[in-house]
Amino acid sequence: MPDEVDVPRDRAARPSLDQVLALRADRMATVREVLAGLTDTTLAGMTEPVTEPGYPEPGSYPVRRCLQAILTEEWEHRLYAERDLDALAGTA
């Protein structure tokens, strides 16, 4: 992905595995909390409008669409991880 002004990243960052796993655990807990609180009404609703610059464009989005994007991304990341682990193990 080319550099984007609105998408911050630090190419020099080298977090430890423990730091990455702690952040991942925190994010997973947040997703579990959100999922546990979903109702049919909230799932059919819209997000609070985002006004800060970044990606996606500032605005309000369907909650269902956001949830589908998160679940799809998680699934795709898992597929890549399993593929890479298979390759490392020599079973690909």
In short:
This protein has 92 residues and is mainly α.
Number of helices: 3
Order of helices and strands: HHH
Number of separate strands = 0
Shape: extended
Summing up helix and strand content along with how strands pair, one would put the structural category as: mainly alpha
- Taking pLDDT < 50 over at least 5 consecutive residues as the criterion, the unreliable ranges are none
Tell me the span between the first and last alpha carbons.
27 Å
Mean pLDDT over the residues: 88
Portion of residues in beta strands equals under 5%
Helix content: 55-70%
Cα-based radius of gyration, to the nearest Å:
17 Å
Largest sheet: none
Overview of the molecule:
The chain is an all-alpha fold and 92 residues long. 55% of the residues lie in helices and 0% in strands. The protein has helices at residues 17-36, 40-43, 63-89.
Secondary structure layout:
Layout (H helix, E strand, L loop, with lengths): L16 H20 L3 H4 L19 H27 L3
Keyword list:
single chain, 55% helix, mainly alpha, 0% strand
